[in-house]
Amino acid sequence: MSGSAAHPEGLAGIAELDLDRQDRRGYAEAVYCAGKTAEQVGAIARAVAARPDVKTLFTRAGDDHASAVLEALPDASWDPVARIVAWPAEPPASTGGLVLVLAAGTSDLPVAREAYVTARHLGRPAELVVDVGVAGLHRILARLDLLRSARAIVVAAGMDGALPSVVAGLVRAPVVAVPTSVGYGAAFGGVAALLTMLNACAPGVSVVNIDNGYGAGHLAAQIAEPPEPQEPGEPA
Predict the structure, then answer these.
(1) Please, what's the b/e burial string for 191-214 (b: 16 or more CB within 10 A of its CB; e: otherwise)?
(2) 13-35 per-position pLDDT tens digit
(3) CA-CA distance, 205 to 29, in Å (whole number)?
(4) Are 126 and 98 in contact (CB under 8 A)?
(5) Of 5-9, 17-21, 39-43, 155-159, which range is least confident?
(6) Considering only CA atoms, which of 22, 174, 177 is closest in space to residue 98?
(7) CA 224 to chain centre
(8) Beta bridge partners of 127
(9) By the 8 A CB rule, do 3 and 29 touch?
(10) PurE domain: which residues (predicted)?
(11) What value, to the nearest 5°, has the Cα angle with vertex 111 and ends 108 and 114?
């Protein structure tokens, strides 16, 4: 594919920018910063600065990564809770259905906010609701109207990971479940929540990897995307 990858100056041996991702898939390029040095992330950001048409999310960015990106892209936005640096800073105008993101507890907020920021920068209207876990079911039941207005729902939960199945039993929308690594010893770093979600009784639950807020937000944004415009005379 012409132009699908490139080695701009300074990137050889570090990365290949996916310059066609927006045209090919309709969604921004993403750079996973964890495991990369600040110098490597900075080099990638400088290459992005040379191609302002390439929308980019820098995910799992620590403070040093964010500083390196902002040095190259001073107008980018940095969300330290979501650990995302977004370029351009402002998300596009919202289209499609609502992506609702639920954090079972405040400890799940970094993963939930990663999903929320991702969905917003992929062009969906999104709302974030925090601390509505199963220890107090009245909190989720009090928001049924909001839940049922969503086109896709992301649920981030650790410990027993029960909230996605509860939510899926209340709504028509698909639920994207994100197990988080929150919990005491037998939570096994999110494995307990992952297994609970994979065994969800309610249908309509998909599950992403532990702590993968970006993947959950991306999938929800795809589910909630607006319908393709029909050609004149095309059957509905």
Answers:
(1) ebbbebbeebeeebbbbbebbbbb
(2) 788 777 778 778 878 889 999 99
(3) 26
(4) yes
(5) 5-9
(6) 174
(7) 13
(8) 100
(9) no
(10) 97-229
(11) 140
pTM over 0.85: yes
**pLDDT, position 64:** 97
CA dist 57 and 233 (Å) reads 39
Please report whether residue 232 resides in a domain: no
Smallest Cα–Cα separation from 214: which of 15, 63, 31, 19?
Answer: 31
In a shared domain, residues 152 and 200: yes
Kindly tell me if the per-residue pLDDT of 2 is higher than 50.
Answer: no
77-79 β-sheet, strand order: 29-32, 56-59, 84-87, 77-79
Q: Is the pLDDT of residue 85 over 80?
A: yes
Predicted local distance difference test score (pLDDT) of residue 231: 66
- Residues 216, 188 within the same domain: yes
Full residue range of the structural domain in which residue 25 is found: 21-87
Q: Could you tell me if residue 13 is inside a domain?
A: no
Residue 188 burial by Cβ neighbours in a 10 Å radius (0-12, 13-18, 19+): middle
Domain membership flag for residue 32: yes
Position 235 pLDDT exceeds 70: no
Residue with tokens 């927006």: 22
88 pLDDT more than 90: yes
**What percentage of the chain has pLDDT greater than the value 70?**
93
